[in-house]
Design a protein that fits this description.
Belongs to the adenylate kinase family. 48% of the residues lie in helices and 15% in strands. It has 210 residues and is α/β, with parallel strands linked by helices. The protein has a single domain (2-26, 79-206), classed as 3-Layer(aba) Sandwich (Rossmann fold), CATH 3.40.50.300. Strands 2-3-1-4-8 form a five-stranded parallel β-sheet. Strands 6-5-7 form a three-stranded antiparallel β-sheet. The radius of gyration is 16 Å and the shape is globular. It binds BIS(adenosine)-5'-pentaphosphate and magnesium ion. Residues 13-14, 30, 32, 85 line the site of magnesium ion.
């Protein structure tokens, strides 16, 4: 199946997507991860995107749509994929409909205070991108990734001012996508408030594997 993961920053989209990608053997395509990889490698795209991302704004629709269109043309997407963090605007959703068929837009249901708490404590692996939380999802060894041993860091856009701005941008530009996909008949709500295991369990119930 072709999934969109839709929801506010810090809702747990990336955390669930990593689990679903393994369980359903489909690629996890995160536009945020692609931008961060470009920033790390110092590419032209990374240079253009860095200041926007750090401040919590959105990279232009034109750049983001081109990037996703190119990624979805790769062979590994033929049996399904998860789009995490795309689309984020109505023009992105309209463009996506011209080159992809989406089976379900999974809407992460969670309140603002919970996402602020999750983002405020998030630490990520510099090497593989795995997410942890200083209180509710600690690594086994402090400062080290359980999966690859990489160093853990705090994302530049997880500072309080940037979190606040991302939530405003979400409300203004991304939340309208809930009605967009409701109108298409493929919006599926998921309760994102529980533990990562609970959220995965609910996902598996809603989307049983064939
Ligand atoms: P992106 O990387 O997509 O960031 P985001 O939407 O702000 O979302 P996050 O990654 O912050 O949150 P998440 O929902 O993945 O939560 P996570 O699983 O990490 O985008 C970054 C930037 O790139 C954007 O701001 C924008 O500038 C640009 N960009 C990206 N896509 C774009 C687009 N389409 N158009 C334009 N610009 C674009 O979890 C968060 C924390 O909570 C972690 O600490 C985790 O351990 C913890 N946690 C997760 N699940 C649970 C749980 N169930 N219970 C308890 N804790 C949990
Ligand atoms: Mg994410």
């Amino acid at each position: 199946m072709n999934f969109i993961f839709l929801g506010p920053p810090g809702a747990g989209k990336g955390t669930l997507a990593k689990e679903v990608a393994v369980a359903y053997a489909i690629p996890h395509i995160s536009t945020g991860d692609i931008f961060r990889e470009n920033i790390k490698n110092g590419t032209e795209l990374g240079k253009k995107a860095k200041a926007i991302i750090d401040a919590g704004g959105l990279v232009s629709d034109e750049i983001t749509i081109g990037l996703v269109k190119d990624r979805l043309s790769k062979d590994d997407t033929k049996n399904g994929y998860i789009l995490d963090g795309f689309p984020r605007t109505i023009p992105q959703a309209e463009a996506l409909a011209t080159f992809a068929k989406i089976d379900a837009a999974v809407n992460f249901d969670i309140e603002d205070n919970a996402v602020v708490e999750r983002l405020g404590g998030r630490i990520c692996c510099k090497d593989c991108g795995q997410m942890y939380h200083v209180v509710n999802n600690k690594p086994k060894t402090e400062g080290k990734c359980d999966k690859c041993g990489g160093e853990l860091y705090t994302r530049d856009d997880d500072k309080p001012e940037s979190i606040k701005h991302r939530l405003e941008v979400y409300r203004e530009s991304t939340a309208p996508l809930i009605d967009f996909y409701k109108g298409k008949g493929n919006l599926v709500d998921i309760d994102a408030k529980g533990s990562p295991d609970k959220v995965l369990e609910e996902f598996k119930k809603k989307f049983p594997k064939n």
